[in-house]
């Protein structure tokens, strides 16, 4: 099997890192360079990466988001932000309107660009024999995180990434059955039994963090009204 494909298929998430391990400058630069080479809509590169090495700053970050102590104990923490400030500056310089709130498309573009850069960073990390965990919960305390990192308008945090040397080996987590995810030429209905079978697979996998069946977890999550403060935040950032 191709080495890159083997690496991708071997992906797993790590949350326990050696606290005395420090990434070399060369390793960090390799990860950041790979991240910056990610695909981007129209080469707009509508994202930025904040490299967080300072321990005091990371302590404040964990105080905001205490369920993710690895943000402090990892070797480095990267914050990926959707960034439409750069093109706002261009519009201002060119003295043209900047009508990004007329459609959700610019927000989707910037979020996708940031996510692709994030995924490249994950792959580069694993290629170096290191581990990582994506932290989407930075959006749960989005106002506090934004203030901590002085995010300007037209910018919002998409997710963070803790990177380090793993101290606990993890298993490869099973994914949904291929028949429930892959469609050829057109979207096709499939037997719901595939989803129920996945519940059984995940229950057998027995990850300690998973306290609910997969179906129950997402039935509960999407059965309640969304966090409207997130929408309010995006409006404050001039993104909606």
Assign the CATH topology of the largest domain: NADH Oxidase
Provide the domain count: 2
- Count of runs of 4 or more consecutive helical residues: 11
Question: Regarding CATH, which class of the largest domain?
Answer: Alpha Beta
Order the strands across the largest sheet as they lie in space: 1-2-4-3
Category from helices, strands and their pairing: alpha+beta
* Number of DSSP-assigned strands: 4
Strand content: 5-15%
Largest sheet: 4 strands, antiparallel
CATH architectural grouping of the largest domain: 3-Layer(aba) Sandwich
**What is Rg?**
20 Å
Can you summarize this structure?
It holds the Pfam family Nitroreductase. This protein is an alpha+beta fold.
Layout of SSEs?
Layout: H1 3-9, H2 25-36, E1 47-52, H3 55-64, H4 70-73, E2 76-83, H5 85-94, H6 105-127, E3 131-135, H7 142-148, E4 155-164, H8 178-181, H9 193-205, H10 214-222, H11 228-236
Antiparallel strand pairs: 1-2, 2-4, 3-4
Helix pairs in contact: 2-6
